Amino acid sequence: MYRAWVGTWRPHRPRGPVMAQFTGPGPKYSIPGTTGYLNHNPTKRQAPAYSFSGVRAPAPAGCSPGPCYYVQPSVTKTGKYVAPGCVMSGRPTGTTEVTPGPGDYFLEKSKKHIYRCAPAHSMAFRHDLACGDVTPGPGDYTIPRVLGPNTTYTTASPCYSMRWRTKLGLFEEDFCKTPGPAAYPKTELDVYKPRAPKYTM
Q1: CB 146, CB 154: distance < 8 Å
Q2: Dihedral of CA 144/145/146/151: which sign?
Q3: 144 near 151, Cβ under 8 Å?
Q4: Residue 158 near residue 152, CB atoms below 8 Å
Q5: Cα→Cα distances 80→57, 69, 84, Å
Q6: What share of the chain is helix, strand, coil (3-state, %, to 5)?
Q7: What Gene Ontology cellular-component terms does the record carry (predicted)?
Q8: What is this structure's pTM?
Q9: How much is the pLDDT for 1?
């Protein structure tokens, strides 16, 4: 009687139907297996399966045509295999044509196309002028000056001119126009020298 109660569990009536209370059909509805490839479980991954074949039946005797159809040893599955052979015959006849000789070829010119070489310069005569038109020389063009006050496109610096001395209206014509030595006042020394002390009584 003590086995009816397990811990805090007490016997009670189930809330819904329990499958353990009903009898099933037994192993009739078993789960499909996972081995082999027949009736394999569709929910599981199936590994690759290999089959073993039986022994082949022996070949019937006398199936070859016999030595009547002898195959040469030089005949293979890819064709006939024999050593190269040369045939000797007469010289073929042909028409004789005028062909260039060995002296007509310059092999020296082909070196620059085959081997690397330094650049070579050659000297030749002056070529004839393609056109005989007389073109103007450098002296025919007038270049604007860049010196002086009247320049075209450059900034001119201040320029000074020199002329001869004119005698019109000079003091040399009338000496009365020039002031004499007494016309200038005497400048005291205290103006441009240190002033000396002065005493008064």
Answers
A1: yes
A2: negative
A3: yes
A4: no
A5: 34, 17, 11
A6: 20, 5, 80
A7: cytoskeleton
A8: 0.17
A9: 46
